[in-house]
User: What shape does this take?
Amino acid sequence: MLTQEVVGECEMIESKKIKSIMLLSIILLSSMWIFVGVQASDTGNVHGTVVDENGDPVSNVKVTGYSDSGSLDSSDYTDGDGYFRLALYQGGNDIYFEKEGYVTGHIGITLPHSVIYVDYDQDPVKMGEIALEQNLGLTTSILSRVVTPGETSSFTFTVSINDEPEEIEFHVSSPEGWDTRVLDSTSEVRTVQLNSGSLSLTLEVYVPETAVETETVFLTVIGTLNSTLGFTILPYQILDRDIQMSSSYPHVSEELGRTISFPLTISNEGEADETVGLLGAVPEGWTTRLVTSGGTEILSLFLESGDSESLTLEVEPSEDASVGEYLVEVQAVSEEGVLRDYIDLRVRLSEAEGEVEVLSSYTDVTVEAGSLFENPLNVWNKGDEDELFLITVMSAPEGWETTFKSGDIEISSLLVAAGSSVSLTFEVTPAEDSEAGSYNLLVFVESESGIITDTLILGVDIREAISGVEIVSTFTDVTVEAGSVINYPLRISNNGENDDQLRMKVVSAPVNWDAVFTSDGNTVSSFYIAAGDDLSLNLEVDPPSNVETGEYLIVIQAESEDGTLSNEIELSATVTGAYEVELELSTLYTTITIGDSVEFTVEVTNAGLSPLTSLYLEAAIPADWDITVTPSQLASLAPRASATFTISAETPSDTVAGDYIVTMQALSDQAESEEADLRVTAKASTSWGFLGIGLAVIVVIGLGITFTRFKRR
Assistant: This one.
């Protein structure tokens, strides 16, 4: 027995040892798992994806991380999906992305803590997508053009280098029979060495006369990486050339940073009037606007048959535009979207060789039509050499007279020494018939060589001639009911410098409307008013009683005796309907024999000042009574007119004798009358009375005969 107990204790001890060893193994395995999953370190992971400008992944991009001290931390290459992952030191880091054909990218990051995770989703920095820009850029503003078969069309494009210099080759793919070539400002180009910046070139495409289908011409720029543009060409034979566009200067030269102006004429040679929309196509970043001689910007144009319109196309190059030849196209399109005509204009941008500036003390003036005004100008030669400058007005409204003067001498050119200025006077006389509004004058100064230029826009506001007489009404638009008298309080002011005798008159008013001017109850037709004084009057207007509803205009005028001073004002009156219905019964009391009918009349009067429509009577009668109204309805009833309705009321035979009330009311689309009551007394038939009397007589006679016979006996 003792041996068995010892053996049992030994087994228990051995079992505990095994359990302890197993528990310790589990703890060690867990610790190893944690150690494998997360390691304490002074570095951490970052990851991201590199894509191109289109969002497509870029593979084999070298990704390098540097610490703030400039030491290399880690590097990696993107895989086929553009993915990378780096282990960087805690703190600030600079990451660079490099691949041939792309601009080197750089991003600075800060690693917040120093733990390395096996799972990349737990990385402390997730950079997302990093876009790399191609070193070679190819852009254009026009990707589609309508071309007449048999003609040559041009597309301006720009090649740019963003980082490293490259040798670039051009390749054009076009349909069979189409001729293409790439041109600079002087000749055809096949290959160029571009070190930095951008270069503007032209793709010239000849469309054969047999072309009928829409085609695409592909231009490929071959460098470290290739870039391609597709130009869509729509052959369109313009058979109807009724709308024609032309320019006196289709090819101009201008300095960088200047606004380019093309004079443009659009004519309608057809037999029908036509509206055309005007569209401009320019290089990317450039802006255009078409303006009239008055400075108004337009988007479409209405041309009567045989008419033409002169406009100015203002072109503003982009700030980063470089020296070169550029194409500007203007299209005239019908309201249905059909191309009616187009014109290609060219501009050569050049570096400024000198500088001239034209200045004015007043860039915006206000004058009356027909009045001459003088504007002082200064022309500064800011170059290093003396220059002869031509000065002209490129844009002025029709009928306006302009002159440049030095003293009393008219001039068109002036010699200005280097670093100095010349003063002159710009005289302008607007046309007598110029309408009130804003206008622009474009003054153009140009060196004899045509290279150095400047422009000055002078704003001119034409105001209406200021009259010495002014009429003001407190109420210029009133609403009244028909038949009401309208009163307009007026204030007449003499704003001139002289005292005047003024006449008041009604220039126009609706037919049969009476209008008089009054002051304190007295009728006024003329009055004396001192300079600077005011006078209060009242215009009393009395429309006819039968006036129709609607809006009416009244024009009044105050005029001096000699007619030199006058002023008009337009007043408005809206007349609404004045509606009133009156009802009158022919009698207020009547009797009726039970079972019979009774007639009476109702007179309805339109007491208002506007016609009534759909006029009818409505009756409230005792139960089971029948009533008939003749006529049942009137289509209309004129103001102050009356109409008579006949009413027939019939009682049933079982009506109880007594007094009854019949209520009548007139109604129309516009108004209704007050109710009117008729008292009706229903009586039994008199035939029963006569029958009773007859029976009584018979009884009396019978009694008399009987009495006589018995008395004889």
